[in-house]
Amino acid sequence: MTPRFPKDRWDAAGSRRGDVHIYFDANDMIETDGRFLANSATSAGEKTIRLPHLASVTDALTREVITVGTEARFSLSIGEAKLLWVKQK
Fold first, then answer.
1. Which range marks the domain in which residue 13 is found?
2. Residues 1-23: tens digit of each pLDDT
């Protein structure tokens, strides 16, 4: 499980040097085990998840394919969550 650590602290800790992959620039909650990725929205709007590799990204509940690529985009309302299945290509 990914530890809950605020984005600004990751930035301050030097994650931009390449030591840590940043999936998301907003302060939304992100958890992943590499196969599944959960996003819980702390703000409404379009979300862009950047993946560390080429992957097929599917909504785990509806089975809708969101993208095949290195970025997944979708909209969420505040408090809404999305569970994604990430299959590396």
1. 7-88
2. 555 555 555 555 555 555 566 77
